[in-house]
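go over this record:
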Amino acid sequence: PEGEDAAGLSEQLAILKNTHISMKTTLGIDIGSSSVKVSLLDVETGRCVASSTNPSQEMPIDALRSGWAEQDPEMWWRYATEGIRQIAAQYPMSDVRAIGITYQMHGLVCLDKAGRPLRKAIIWCDSRAVEIGAEALEGIGRDYCLSHALNSPGNFTASKLAWVKRNEPKLFGRIDRFMLPGDYIAYRLSGEIGTTESGLSEQILWDFKEERRADFVADYYGIPRTMIPDAGLSIGIGARTDQATEAALGIPAGTPISYRAGDQPNNAFSLNVMEAGEIAATGGTSGVVYGVVDTPKADPKSRVNTFVHVNHTAANPRYGILLCINGTGILNSWVRRHIAQEKIGYAEMNALAEQAPAGCDGLLMLPFGNGAERMLENRCTGTAIEGIDLNRHTTAHLLRAAQEGIACSFRYGIDIMRSLGLRPDVIRAGRANLFLSPLFRRTLATLTGARIELFDTDGALGAARGAALGAGLYRSRDEAFASLRKLEVIEPEAADRDALEAAYERWKKALEEHLQR
């Protein structure tokens, strides 16, 4: 167009360019030990419209001694805010109606009276408190502890704090509050200190029999009750953002933080695993199988653990039985760095592993090299490679042996869960991390006899969906999960069953020999 028509069109285009079409959104923040992911959910469509993962390389984990693992809480906050700002460059934060947070479980963050971290956080895979937890189980009384807390105090948050009390008494004396990693992010966004009932259970500070905080654990350890934050529900408004967050990030002050859950209960929530008998799995740094029951159950050996699930209420109880294997994805990552020497990506590595036969011609790996393993009764066995034939085995065999060894560890743990009454005929998972590998998926399905269903979701998106449900932006769970897409179904591979079953028996025998050493 020319003349007046051209001028009019230019004016209209300028107006459109500067016109903001409001979209109701929620933010999900996932605080992992490798990275921090932030996702933005369009509530109306249920779609993830933007996401950001920081840093580009894995976050460092400080290990000053064998079995230790620490991270700086300020590092989590820095990458969370960086991710939010990256999304804010595309979508206005003024449209955010609620925030959900998921996080690495069992970590310990200690704050002084000014709300500043007093030390680096002792994170989930740190093993320093194992002996303290074992002492507490006997000191409190094994029967009482297992009937009320359903778990040994083990290596969980309360035991980590007891380690600080015993080994860093001056620092302990300066602690005003302690909290989980997700509670710390909620605090930075809101200025409010709190936790959830599910969070208390993962700290071994929940009394399942009395349906209240387990002060008997804190009292045994000499932890002042005033240090423990008040607890609310996982799905519901627990805090609201403050003016500092609005000034720094553009999220309106008063925005509800309406969902908070540890990474494994959240993974189950993300997959709509909410009812008794349903099973979820993940294969990140650690491998997890998480099954929901409606009756609290304890493993006498605490090889698997029971926590309050995100939708638990006293009237409609829901508990999560969690199997955690520390050395899974981290083994796959180690193999890529040191065997594949980072010359190929994971997709190429998976394709190369397919060149070796099922059972790896007798080569096997035990993937337990990332701290004490709960399902092995808190023992550190280390990773082992056995059966190498220098004339037959290749890089492909080593790559496949790693994935088969991880799948065998899942099978070993699932057999423990079966002994507690869970029947995992179907396992739901997000298509991420180890579940991106077709080989791993087939091997796991074949070894366990379970059908695997893959869904288009992840932790940050699940937290954003939980925030929308907790803030009342969705009227029901059915509405919240109406857009959840099933991507693929993997059935057990009959042709590989005999070879893999024989490999598993060799693997289990090797593990038992290691445990006896």
Remarks:
- The longest strand covers residues 47-54.
- The two ends are 85 Å apart (CA to CA).
- The chain has a mean pLDDT of 93.
- Residues 395-419 form the longest helix (25 residues).
